[in-house]
Structure formats: C-alpha cells, structure tokens
Design goal:
mainly alpha
Length: 146
C-alpha cells in the first residue's frame, strides 16, 4: 500500500476508534446515571417508609407491616435492576478498555508511519539536491574545459 494511502487508512481507523470510544463512554455514563437514579429511588423509598412508620397512628398501624413489606419488595427489585446495570457497566468498561488499547496501538503505528514518510521525503529531497549539485558540478566542469 502506498505510504499516503496507508496514512489515510490509519487516520480513518483512528477516527472510527475515537467515535467508538465516545460511544462506549456515553453508554457507560448512561448506565452509571441509571444506577444513581435507582440508588436515589431506593433512598427515597427508605426515607418515605421511615417517615410513614414514625407517623403511624392507631388507625394506620395494622397496615404498616404490609406497607413495609411492599417497600422491601420494591427495594429488592431496585437492587436487582442495579445489579443488572452493574453487569452491563462492567462489560462496557471492558469494551472501553479494549477500544482504548486499540486506539493507542493505532496511534503508535500512525506516528511511526508519519515518521517513516517524513524520513523518505527528506531522503528524496537530499537525493534531488545531490543530483542537482552533481549536475551543476558537471556543468561547471564542462564549461571550464571548453
């Protein structure tokens, strides 16, 4: 593959990987936000249950155990949802790490390719200058002999 095409391909791969990193990062952020929301819901539910328990009176006390049981069931459901989100977040973090590593590898290869191309261009310029200098020398020499 010609060097310019190789550089273009590596740059394209870099942009694709960067987009992938951003996408996974957004997904992970959304998962963490959903976890925080579940935590907030659970805390609100606990607070509400504590308030209801402390403010219960003779008329509402018979219903309090059933209410507290329903709160407990709801909190367990929230915890199960949170655990599922944690599993998804763990997988997203693994994908993010893999994509990051691939991005860094691509950057290293791209940097090396850019340096190689720069070196080749410098060599070509030096060779051109050498040829021009040699031609000038031969021309001066030829003029001197005539």
């Amino acid at each position: 593959m010609p060097p310019r095409n190789r550089l273009a391909a590596l740059k394209l791969i870099g942009r694709i990987k960067q987009h992938e990193l951003e996408s996974i990062g957004a997904e992970l952020s959304a998962l963490r936000a959903a976890q925080s929301d579940l935590d907030r819901q659970s805390a609100d539910l606990s607070q509400h249950a504590a308030t209801e328990a402390s403010q219960s009176n003779a008329d509402t006390r018979p219903y309090l155990p059933g209410y507290l049981k329903s709160v407990d069931i709801k909190q367990r459901g929230l915890e199960e949802e949170r655990e599922k989100l944690e599993e998804q977040a763990t997988l997203a973090e693994a994908r993010l790490f893999t994509a990051f590593r691939e991005t860094k590898t691509n950057e290293t290869v791209l940097d090396r390719a850019v340096k190689e191309q720069s070196l080749e261009e410098a060599r070509a310029e030096i060779a051109t200058l050498d040829d021009a200098g040699r031609n000038l020398f031969l021309l001066k020499r030829a003029e001197g002999q005539t």
